[in-house]
Amino acid sequence: MRPDLIIFDCDGVLVDSEIIAARVEAEMISEAGFPISAEEMMERFAGLTTRDILLRLETVSEVPFQASLIDRIKGELDKRLSRDVRPVDGAAAAVRATTIPYCICSNSPQERIEAMLDRAGMAGLFDRNRIYSARAIPSGRTKPAPDVFLHASAQLSADPAKCFVVEDSVHGIVGARAAGMRVIGFTGASHSWPGHADALTEAGAETVISRWSDFSPVVAALSEWSDA
After folding, report:
1. FRET pair for 222, CA 20 to 30 Å: which of 35, 161, 189, 213?
2. Burial, 224: exposed, middle or buried (Cβ in 10 Å; 0-12, 13-18, 19+)?
3. What angle separates helix 38-45 from helix 18-31, to the nearest 10 degrees?
4. pLDDT along the chain (228 residues), means of 10
5. Shortest CA distance to 177 belongs to which of 155, 199, 207, 145?
6. Are 170 and 188 in contact (CB under 8 A)?
7. What pTM did the predictor assign?
């Protein structure tokens, strides 16, 4: 089964941004009255929007976060990403070597995705019409909802069952699996933690890679096998 489409997540897959986001969010959420470490942010909330993270934390704490906190985190995060974000090692070469149609599906805003790709030297690898932000699709529902994956596959005339998704987060994998897609987990960015690969497998990844040099062989192997 040759895939119709490869869907790449962006943060923590193509660009090494999740570690930056976790540090910014942990710092500012702690200052707002809920002490939390960057490590806990990465393990529990990687892949979620800041809004969803704050909503989840409010349900388990008695700390009411001010609505302005989202905007303040966004401003600080954009500043640090513009200065510090780097490509994940080997990601650009893996994308260049991909002979299957591909796109990006991300929870990040469109402008941030494009700015990070540009800062990481990868802007030329993705046409703007192949970058899908969950916030910009008609439903506006972000991962772990499957909407952005289904929107991308419909726009690019791809059968969801013949789409391979590369994801670094449990929440992203849950969304991709709900869309009926096959998932390769990725643990090669700086935010990976002990147990990361196991968590991705338990969420539904068929296999997990920790370096981009393994990507093409894994796609070839999975293309030869299906449990359908």
Report:
1. 189
2. exposed
3. 120
4. 94 96 94 92 88 89 86 94 96 97 96 96 94 96 97 98 97 97 97 94 98 97 78
5. 145
6. no
7. 0.91
CB neighbours of 190 closer than 8 A, spacing ≥ 6? 16, 18, 19
Exposure class string for 126-152: b at 16+ Cβ within 10 A, else e = beeebbbbbbebeeeebbbbbbbbbbb
Residues belonging to the chain = 228
Beta-carbon contacts of residue 23 (< 8 Å; ≥ 6 apart): 38
DSSP, collapsed to helix, strand or coil, labels residue 94 as helix
Q: Phi/psi at 188 (nearest 5 deg)?
A: -95, 5
Query: What are the residues facing 86 on neighbouring strands?
Result: none
φ/ψ of residue 29, rounded to 5:
-70, -40
Tracing tokens 């059968």 back to the chain, one arrives at 159
State pLDDT tens for residues 55-114. Answer: 999 888 877 888 899 999 999 999 999 999 999 999 999 999 999 999 999 999 999 999
Whether the bond into 3 is cis, omega within 30 of 0? no
| 8-state DSSP, 107 | S
Q: Could you give the CA distance from residue 122 to residue 116 in angstroms, rounded to a whole number?
A: 8
The DSSP secondary-structure symbol of 206 reads S
C-alpha–C-alpha distance, residues 183 and 40, integer Å: 24
Which tokens belong to 196? 């990361």
Closest alpha carbon to 28 in 19, 17, 38 = 38
